Amino acid sequence: MPQNRPATSNGGVIALILVGGAFATGVAALFMTVRSYATPAMLGFRTSPAYFLIACLFAGLVVGTAVLPTRPRGPLAPILAGLSAYVAMEVGGRIGMILGLTLSAQGMPSGEFLTAVLKPVFGRYQAFELLALVAAAGLAGLRVLTAKTGGASQPWNAGAPGGPFGAPGRPPSYQQPFPGGGQGPVPGGPQGAPPPHGGA
Asked: Where is the composition biased (Gly residues) (predicted)?
């Protein structure tokens, strides 16, 4: 009979979420580097909100995918995955913006620019980053639900040898017991030789 895998410890879930967050930070940095690089190629698309939303979706899916190999329990995994994806977009986006402009100018940006980029603000694009949070938390929450409902099924062949009714498909035996020593004749059986002359 198949056995249930034990639930993954909180430490294991947190470790994988942190790994997924690190990869998601790299994904966000790559997207924002391409977005900030000074080139006319696909400039309209790279600077559009749609491009930014795609980056947020990819970052969220990367974090959520890191939870799939685990069997988490409770709300810890979705909450941490969502927060990790949001932080990945915040950190990776700033790193990518600095890298893109640095590569374009072939030199380090000014201190004022770095201060402006690193200053925490909340605007339209920070609201867009909530998509990363929703994607990661949703995927992790789905994994929690599937881990909860994925129990082992009960065996159907309860009548196998050792069960109360013998092997399935084999009719029970109704043979009469052979009378042993000290037992009388079997009821309904022959009662001995008939008397001579019909009992006369």
From this structure: 179-191
Q: Specify the pLDDT at position 191.
A: 56
Domain that holds residue 136: 10-149
Q: What is the pLDDT of residues 172-181, one digit of tens each?
A: 555 555 555 5
Identify the pLDDT of residue 8: 83
Structural domain contains residue 60 = yes
pTM above 0.85, yes or no: no
Q: How many CB atoms lie within 10 A of CB 51?
A: 17
When divided into structural domains, the chain yields a total of 1
Q: Is the pLDDT of residue 154 over 50?
A: no
CA distance 154 to 50: 49
| Under 8 Å between Cβ of 95 and 32 | yes
Residue 186 forms part of a structural domain: no
